[in-house]
Fold this protein.
Amino acid sequence: MVRSLNARAVGNLGIAAALTIFLGGCGSMSLPSFSSSPPPAPEPGVAPEMPATIRSDEIVGRWGLASYQNPNDRARTEAAARAQCKQPYVITAGGTGGVVMHLADQATPQELRLKGSPSGKNYIGPAGPTPGEQDREIVSFDGRVLVTRFVDKDAAVRYGNMVYVRCAPRA
């Protein structure tokens, strides 16, 4: 009789241990809810990039480059940029529809995209949210003169408003 009591106690202990493990696993499982509350809304994804109103082929070419901080210096800076056409900054077409330019503080140029925004502004920068920290806003563009400003405050202070003046095509 003593042996059967020990066997019963060991069996009960084994069942209790198995239930403990089973119930512990239930805490990490998600069971369906039978309540009438609506399911949570899905998290919003990244909105697709809006196309810019300026095409990348419009800014491909050779450009004189200068910059200014004070808006009163814009005309003088455009003349200085035009004088830089002896050593132009070259913007080339990228392999996936973008343009190849330098990012702030980067020695190697890379392909950047022209991106639009709901506010109607255009940006040049790597793929991703608009405006991104590495983007530059296109302040103005008339086909001959392109003025940009970096979105990043530190880069905007260091580089100012970048003025690109289209160099005349070589004869």
